[in-house]
Specification:
With 320 residues, the chain is α/β, with parallel strands linked by helices. The chain is 43% helix and 16% strand. The protein has two domains: 211 residues, 3-Layer(aba) Sandwich (Rossmann fold), CATH 3.40.50; 97 residues, Rossmann fold (3-Layer(aba) Sandwich). It has twelve helices and ten strands. The strands form two sheets. The protein has a six-stranded mixed β-sheet, with helices on both faces. The chain has a four-stranded parallel β-sheet with strand order 5-4-3-6, with helices on both faces. The chain is globular.
Length: 320
């Protein structure tokens, strides 16, 4: 970790989330080995805690006392929680459409929540303007290398929890790609260190209304048309690290799939009814994409597939 003083860390037990077999859902998809890694077990209910603990440790080590973050919800809640624990004041800029449970969670940690009308990118623009005006540190989970160093640990955990082996495939929902990029960095480090001979194929799943990475991977033109999506956590028009995601896609032999809202909500229902896992729509998008990848033959019946359940359904429950 890129933090010199271990005392800078204010851990709340993030990480070491369970890997569980999804026997029934796997069988319904025609898969013999499907595993979920339950990132919903992290302290604030999403994988973002992995990055926030490192980001806030670095801020604390450098004497930062106030930060600005912009988020669609989960990262804002996570940064707010770890900032509170580190004694750092947080300002979170989020779209006014943020789910009420996520907004309440951000506020309960004592952060100042700034709700911004318009698309997700408007919150980023407002945050940057606030940073320029007030001279506060911009602790962006989308841009900070410290945050990615935290999400990298996900890959090492998978290796250890599966008996020092890796699955054949990872299927990850991608907006700005902080988990995707972190996982790729971790797997690549393990290969370079000689711990493994090969890495999993890392597949990217996006909502059809927000598919800049999928379109670029496919060589297709794409531009936003104003449609929304139930998968708000991956509603990114122009990820700042799109090229890095694409490089990881190609280097790992991964593929990319776009899914519509109906398939996302159906996957969310099946995951709950078959396996007892209550995921937010953004997480369910990965399972909808998995179905597409199996149907197209990218993933075979006997392949071992791991899917992270990135966020809790308790934080984002769309109308039935």
């Amino acid at each position: 970790m890129p933090v010199h003083d271990p005392a800078s860390f204010t851990s709340m037990g993030e990480g070491s989330t369970a890997c569980v077999g999804l026997t029934k859902l796997g069988a319904s998809l025609g898969l013999e080995r499907l595993t979920a890694k339950l990132e919903i077990q992290n302290p604030t209910g999403s994988y973002k805690d992995r990055g926030s603990v490192v980001l806030m440790a670095a801020a604390r080590e450098h004497g930062v006392c106030e930060v600005v973050e912009d988020s669609s919800g989960n990262a804002g809640a996570s940064v707010s929680a770890y900032a509170a624990r580190a004694g750092i004041r947080a300002h979170v800029f989020a779209p006014s459409s943020v789910p009420s449970a996520k907004a309440a969670q951000i506020r309960v940690y004592g952060a100042s929540l700034h709700l911004i009308d318009g698309p997700r990118e408007a919150a980023t623009e407002a945050a940057l303007a606030w940073v320029d005006e007030h001279g506060i540190v911009y602790a962006s989970h989308n841009l900070s290398p410290y945050f990615i160093e935290g999400t990298k640990v996900f890959a090492y955990e998978v290796f250890m929890q599966l008996g020092r082996r890796l699955p054949d495939h990872l299927v990850i929902p991608v907006g700005n790609g902080s988990l995707y990029r972190g996982a790729w960095n971790g797997f690549r480090e393990m290969r370079e260190a000689g711990l493994v001979d090969s890495v999993p194929r890392l597949h990217c799943v996006q909502a059809r209304a927000f598919m800049p990475v999928v379109a670029a991977y496919m060589g297709e033109d794409w531009s936003p048309d104003g449609r929304g999506t139930v998968a708000g956590g991956i509603a990114s028009v122009d990820p700042p690290h799109k090229q890095a995601i694409l490089r990881a896609l190609r280097a790992s032999g991964g593929s990319a799939a776009a899914v519509d809202d109906d398939s996302i909500l159906e996957s969310r229902r099946l995951l709950a009814e078959m396996e007892g896992i209550y995921a937010e729509p953004t997480s369910a998008a990965a399972f909808a994409g998995l179905s597409e990848l199996v149907r197209s033959g990218v993933i075979g019946r006997s392949d071992h597939v791991l899917v992270p359940v990135t966020g809790s359904g308790l934080k984002d429950t769309p109308p039935s």
